[in-house]
Amino acid sequence: MTTASPAVTAERSAPRTPRRRWWPTPKLIIIIAVAGAIGYLALVPLYYLLWGTFFDASGFTLGGFATAYGDSRIGSLIGNSLWFAAGSAVLSLVVGTSLAYLNVRTDVPFKALFFAASIIPLIIPGILYTISWIFLASPDIGLINKALEPVFGAAAVDIFTIWGMIWVEGLHLSPIVFLLMVAAFRSMDPSLEESALMCGATRLQVFRKITVPLTRPAIVAAVLVMAVRSLESFEVPALLGLQNGIYVFTSRIYFVLRSYPPDLAAAGALALGLLVLAVLGVAISNLVGRAGKSFQTVTGKGFRPRPMELGRWRPVMGAAIVCYFLLTVVAPLVVLLYTSLLKFYQAPSMAALRSMSLDNYVELLGLSQAATALRNSLFLGIATATLVMAVMAIAAWITVRSRIPGRQLIDQFAFVPLVIPGLVLGLALSFVYLRSPIPIYGTIFILLIAYVTRYMPYGMRYSVTSMQQIATELEESAQVSGASWWQTFRRVLLPLLAPGLLAGWIYILVVSFRELSSSILLYSPGNEVLSILIFEQYENGQFTVLAALGVVMVLTLVVLVTVAYKLGAKVGLREN
């Protein structure tokens, strides 16, 4: 008979300590939730778009492509799309680059107008800008045609052509090119141009042989970005092109989905074609951007830009700037305000001026749809901006600060919606939630999902840029002092990130408030936003009420931007 040793007996009789179960930390939960949300928003709609295009009840099929691209008009559709995108990009480049050069490199007068001419068109929604040009240049009711009729005859200008589409889209995009090229011209050493002038070259030769080559990466990138923006444009092709049967990808997708019965597979095939063109444009833009180091002119040697004197051309350029400001800013806003005060649209006359009243605004007060659309737009704008910047702030920390394997995938997934046109995104989300058991389709929340997805890349860029400017020592000091990750993020990083986050919040608020292309396929009665209501009023021929609603929309945007700008000016500034 063997006897257990005292040590073994003590081990058996000692009470067992229960094994501690592993629980995920709040930090891990937040990181997983943010990464999962970004992946879901970016990839799931694309997956369902591909599935709905290539598969039906019987399995794999190319019937959608056969229907979409077997149409005899597909050649003209592709040609119109490329011609519209290229023409708009070139026009916006010429106008925006010229204004930027005059503003930065010359002593042109009226430089204060550059700010208004570059900012105000960005605030005006695309649908209102397009409708304003219909009031100005329509062959039937356009004020410009009425003014030119005694000299050139009736319908001297027709805005409902491919050239009219290029004109409106190019002018609306030119402020973006202006802002891009201002930065390029400010970072270029002007001594190179001055040396050429001293050697006897003319200003035109200097611009063509020195200025343009040195800013070539920025110019090419601007052309490609504007071309992609034009490809995904919906307002201009829908309001101007459909009038004369001029189709591009976006307007054709809209027409296919609005016909009965809607052909989702054919619309998906067209959407994929548009997506491929957009991806190619962005890819070329990135390649050009990476090649930009060959054209660097700003080095460690300091320089101070000195504006060139225009001489006798100074008043001519000043007059040209005033004309541009009147044409692109004042005329669209004035015709919108003028129309909103009329009982019915008519050319200016003494009788028209005497008939002006605020009846359209009074009608808006009694229009329940207008109040609902305004509330929906405000809700979607504020909610989208808040959600995007809150989630992207954490996503930026994961990408920039953490050492999590595969963290760069989050940044890449967040970039995916940038190459998805708004109309394609709306179609993809309809594929998702028409099949989903979650009752989201037909509610305002599907619009919120669309807006958050569409503007996620912009929030990521603002957040990453701000995060990269903050030294890691601040976080390390807080953690050494005993602060948790969440305390460090909330009390140290967020206050330092606030200026960049607020700038992104303001931008996303503005673009969400005026969004149309991703809303047109997803809204339902009772969930309209202002841009949808304006589009419906235009289709119903309610031009005067539409104009009043447009004035209210522009004023609301101005107030929102002003208030946000005033609040943002105080963020991050502290007196010692």
Automatic annotation (TrEMBL):
Q: Which BP terms does GO give this entry?
A: transmembrane transport
Membrane-spanning segments? 28-48, 82-102, 114-136, 172-189, 210-231, 264-288, 316-338, 378-400, 412-434, 440-457, 492-513, 543-565
Q: How does it sit in the membrane?
A: Multi-pass membrane protein
Q: Where in the cell is it found?
A: Cell inner membrane; Cell membrane
A single Pfam family, by name?
BPD_transp_1
Q: Where is the ABC transmembrane type-1 domain?
A: 78-283, 374-564
What Gene3D superfamilies does UniProt report for this protein, alphabetically?
MetI-like (1.10.3720.10)
Q: What is this protein called?
A: Iron ABC transporter permease
The organism is: Acrocarpospora pleiomorpha
